[in-house]
Amino acid sequence: MRRAAALMVAACVLALPTAAIAQNCPRTTLADIEDEVMCPVCGTPLGLASESPQAERERAYIEDLIGDCRSKEEIKTALVSQFGDDVLALPGDASGESDLGDVLVYLIPALALLAAAAGIAFATVRWRRRSGGAPPQATGEPAAAGSARLDADLDRYDL
Amino acid sequence: MRRVLSPVSIAVLCLLAGLLVLLGYGLASNSPDRSIDEALARGEREPAPALDLPVLDGEGSGSLSDHRGKVVVLNFWGSWCRPCRNESPLLQRWHRRMLPKGGTVLGVDILDTTPDALAFIERYDLRYPMLKDKDGDSLESYGVIAYPETFVIDRRGRIAAAQRGPVDDEFMRTEVAPLLGES
Prior knowledge:
The complex is a heterodimer.
Chain A: H1 2-24, H2 30-34, E1 38-39, E2 44-45, H3 53-67, H4 72-83, H5 100-130, H6 143-156
Chain B: H1 7-30, H2 35-41, E1 52-54, E2 61-63, E3 71-77, H3 82-98, E4 103-110, H4 114-123, E5 130-133, H5 137-142, E6 149-153, E7 159-164, H6 169-180
Parallel strand pairs in B: 3-4, 4-5
Antiparallel strand pairs in B: 1-2, 3-6, 6-7
C-alpha cells in the first residue's frame, strides 16, 4: 500500500514539469500554418502541394519548429528567413504594413463581386420589364395559336 | 438593320477583353528567359549575369566575380531535388580535378532550408563553395526553370555551355575540360 502511494507521488512529481512545459508551449498545427504559407518551388500554397518533395521538406521543417514549441508567428518568421518574403501566402504578411498591392488584392475581388451583382440586378429588372412582370404560365393553348405568336415575334425582331 | 449592343453585353465583352489581356500578360511575364541558350546556339558566349548571394554555411556573401579568371561550373541545386543527389558526387570529383588547373564548381542552393542543405553537403562530402539563394532571385537572369541546371563559365566570365538538367561525365569532358586549357 505504501509502495503504491509512493509510486503515485513519484509519478505526479515527474508529470509536473511536463505539464508546465505543455502549458508554456504555444499550440499550433501544421494544418493551421500550411494554408498561410507557400511552397516556393511549386508556386502554390503549401496546403495544396501534396506530392512535391520540396513541399514535404518544408512541412518537415515546420513540424520540427512546432516540436520546438515555436508559435505560428515565430514559424512564419523562420520560414521568411529561409525562403524570403514570397513564402507568405497572405497579403500584408510580408512587411507587416499594407501597401497598395495588398489593398488591391482585397479590393479588386470585392469590386468585381459588386459589379457582378449590379449586372445581374440590371439584367433581371430588364428581363422582368420585357416579360411584363408576370411569370409565363402554362395555358395549354392550341399549337396553332402558339405558332402564330412565334411568327409575330419573329417579325417584330426582324430575324 | 443596325443593332446596338446592350450595356450588359458591352460590360461582358470588356470583362472578357480584360481577362484576355491579363492572361497574355501572365504568359509573357512567366515565360523563361532563353537568351543564354539562343546565344550558345549561335556559337556566341554571353557575359554571365552577376551573382551576389549569401554564403550558405557561414557569414558574409560571395559572388561569381570572386572567381574571375577561373573556369566556373555554376550549379543550381536544392536538397529536395532528386536528380541533384546523383549529380553532386560527380561535381565533387570534377571540382577536385579542376582545382589545380584553375577551375572550380560553384553551387547555388535554391529555395531550400539551410539545415537540409548542410545535411546534403555533409552526406555527399561536397567541398566546393556554396551560395544560398533563398528566394530564387537569381533563377530569372539565368532562365532556370528546372533543377538542377548548370552553366559553364570561361575564364573571361562568359557562359560557354549550359545544361538544363543533370550533368554527366560526358558533358564535363566535352564542355568543361577544353576550357581549362584556354587562357
